[in-house]
Amino acid sequence: MTRHGGQKVLKRLNTPAHLQIKRKHGTFFVKSTPGPHPNRFCLPLLHIIRDLLTIVDNHKEAKKLIGLGYIKIDGKIIRKKSYPVGLMDVISIDKINKYYRILPDSHHGLILHEISEAESNFKLCRINNKTTVKGGHLQLNLHDGRNFLIKIQDPRTPKEDIYKRMDVLKISIPEQEINKILRFKENNIAIIMSGKNIGQVGKIVNILKRFGPKASTVSIQHNGEHTETLYDYTFIIGEENPEIDLPKFEN
Q1: Tell me, what DSSP letter sits at residue 52?
Q2: In this model, does residue 2 exceed pLDDT 70?
Q3: Buried-most residue among 21, 26, 41, 139 (CB within 10 A)?
Q4: Got the DSSP string for 229-242?
Q5: pLDDT in tens, 104-135
Q6: What is residue 7's DSSP assignment?
Q7: What is the pLDDT of residue 249?
Q8: Is residue 40 left, alpha or beta, with left meaning phi > 0 and alpha meaning psi from -120 to 50?
Q9: How many CB atoms lie within 10 A of CB 18?
Q10: How far is CA 198 from CA 64, 145, 193, in A?
Q11: Three-state DSSP class for residue 6
């Protein structure tokens, strides 16, 4: 008989390169379950607790800690050890007053960056797509799997349709209310979220739109130098100043 569906286990040799594990970790590694972030670019929750934060010693202790409900992702208690944690997610551990945000990094791909309690109350989400649903209302599809329904009063003249693809929403958590819109335009501050220049932060100096998949590019000024990256690799994080705290080496 043939196997139906994907494998539920993951061997260490097949783990994505951005996972920070030891070379002789073992034969198997925890595999992320389907969720808000793609399996190829996320961190399993157990990996964060055991290997990155090192607040427990082994798999059994990490699984128990997560099962007790001490870990919150974006203000919501998560009890699944293989939950995928991805870009811009906020991790809260109230028992020890520690808060972290997932950011892109040039060395490891994804890192944990410690933030203040005040900053853990919001999250940045990029609009990857928007669609019109039944009734003429607007649905925003965000990068972390969220969907926002924007009520349109008059479908013929939608004054509420002020959102565009690639714009970033500053969302309160866990209330999930839109507090601010960061426009995808020149002179705004962006971070590169993928590619060989991942983790670089700078001001957008030029947006060049071309026809075709992955043809459009964005030029970012970083430390006096210009970096060219793909259109879809750009994530707006502020206007004159970043809305989020960044690692020291990025400032």
Answers
A1: I
A2: no
A3: 41
A4: EEGGGEEEEESSSB
A5: 988 888 999 999 999 999 999 999 999 988 88
A6: -
A7: 52
A8: alpha
A9: 17
A10: 34, 21, 5
A11: coil
Residue reference for tokens 């994530």: 235
Residue with token string 């950011």: 103
Q: Are 101 and 113 in contact (CB under 8 A)?
A: yes
In sequence order, the 6+-apart residues with CB closer than 8 A to the CB of 26 are 12
- CB-based contacts of 121, cutoff 8 Å, min separation 6: 75, 172, 173
User: Contact at 8 Å (CB) between 125 and 88?
Assistant: yes
| Structure-block tokens of residue 171 | 């969302």
Answer whether 81's CB lies under 8 Å from 44's CB: yes
Nearest to 26 by CA among 54, 56, 58: 58
Dihedral angle, C-alpha 132, 169, 16, 204, nearest 10 °: 110
Domains in the chain and their CATH numbers?
Answer: 10-117 (3.10.290.10), 121-182 (2.40.50.740), 189-241 (2.30.30.30)
